Amino acid sequence: MTALNKKTVDDINVKGKKVLVRCDFNVPLKAGVITDENRIVAALPTIKKLIEDGGKVILCSHLGKPKGEPKPELSLAPVAKRLSELLGKEVTFAADAEVVGANAKAAIEKMADGDVVLLENTRYRAEETKNGEAFSKELGALADVFVNDAFGTAHRAHCSTVGVTEYVEESAAGYLIGKELQYLGNAVENPARPFVCILGGAKVDSKLPVIENLLKKADTLIIGGGMSYTFLAAKGYGVGTSLIDESKIDYCRDMLAKAEENGVKILLPIDCTITKEFPDPIDAPVDVKVVDADSIPADYMSLDIGTKTAELYANEVKSAKTVVWNGPMGVFENPILAAGTIAVAKSLAETDAVTVIGGGDSAAAVNTLGFGDKMTHISTGGGASLEFLEGKELPGIVALNDK
Ligand code: ATP
Asked: Active site includes 383?
């Protein structure tokens, strides 16, 4: 699947039309302050293009998980403010608890060509994540044309990504979606080899299924972070109180066998950085020990790869021509448990290979460490980039009009 067979913002005429743009403004916030604005910056090219073309630009997005009700701490108001600064132009924020309410309608009524309005968090509405008809219709009624540029949510069929397309004249993809599909598509369909995939992070159940598809494409699969302990358990190792998905142990065993059949190298941790308890708060000082991967005591949990593993993984990256990385190697939010993630990030920063980072946390780790500009592409989508790598169709892209 590529964006190329779908209409893009270059194929539509928006002059004088109301354009609803689904962006991915799901940015991390700390006490109302945006701590990583990458996703806002990534949305700018499409927004600027629609402003220049004389559209009335109505933006919408979700932020966090308000679970279908207004939560002031998850309001998009701080995004409207930052977006106004980045665009150098006022962005009117329509603060409606029901998203499409009196404020939104009045603001849109007043719009001149090239004006920008931002709606409130779409997930304030419970129907949003169920792709409900009523909210899809309300969103569609605001606009003539729909543009989806929210790559990070393209793997979800929601009102603002899929349902709305039924109620507008035309729907097209934005530049960000086009760029994401180009980089991710090239990386998996036509990779320069050796092609090394690094998987880590905590969402074990959603990430393990990707492995089967990657085994058909990658030359080496490196596993770290919370993912690795189900594999170590599959090898018969005790993993103490480390993160594990018991129901996937057999699956991991099958994957290890399949890798051998396909001639794909799987690298697992050979040593682990362990603690007695999970740090609370997450960045609190912790006492750590490094032990061999087959020697994690029953009352310890592993929260980072060990030093020998970090060296092994970094060395493997050195010989790669394409590297795709999703998910940190450990609890990188804690400086004492960040060494594995830093070592891997550094190895990616130092290679000439094509490097693609997928996943909010991996992207945050790379940016915090100052390696962002050393990567070929940092994807704005965690789950979406994974599902794409898995070979699945993304409903938010399928729903757009063909060229
Ligand atoms: P996303 O999918 O949200 O875009 P991501 O793919 O980068 O992000 P996640 O799967 O969300 O990553 O996992 C990141 C989290 O995994 C971090 O908060 C980190 O602390 C945690 N993590 C990493 N290793 C471990 C571990 N060994 N035990 C527990 N948690 C871990």
From this structure: yes
The Cα–Cα gap between 334 and 229 comes to: 19
Q: Which amino acid is at 59?
A: L
Q: Give CA separation, 203 vs 100, 250, 365, in Å.
A: 33, 18, 16
Kindly write down the DSSP assignment for every residue of 99-120, as one continuous string: SSSHHHHHHHHTPPTT-EEEE-
CA atoms within 13 A on the CB side of 69: 0
What is the 3-state composition of the chain as percent helix, strand, coil, each rounded to the nearest 5? 40, 20, 40
Find out whether the beta carbon of 157 lies less than 6 Å from any atom of ligand 1: no
Cα–Cα distance between 115 and 108 in angstroms, integer?
A: 9
Q: How far is the CA of 204 from the centre of ligand 1 (A)?
A: 9
pLDDT, tens digit (0-9, with 9 covering 90-100), for 283-342: 999 999 999 999 999 999 999 999 999 999 999 999 999 999 999 999 999 999 999 999
Residue among 114, 178, 138, 159 nearest 22 (CA)? 159
Asked whether 37 lines ligand 1 (CB < 6 A), one says no
Which one from 163, 382, 383, 396 is the annotated catalytic residue?
383
At residue 1 the predicted structure's pLDDT band, cuts being 50, 70 and 90, is: very low
Q: Kindly state if the Cβ of 36 falls inside 6 Å of ligand 1.
A: no
Name the helix (H) or strand (E) containing 266. Answer: strand 265-267
Taken in order 213, 266, 306, 233, the sign of the CA dihedral is: positive
Calculate how far, in angstroms, residue 333's C-alpha sits from the geometric centre of ligand 1: 10
In the chain, the amino acid numbered 202 is A
Tell me the pTM: 0.81
Q: Which of helix, strand or coil describes residue 154?
A: coil
Would the CB of 269 count as within 6 Å of ligand 1?
no
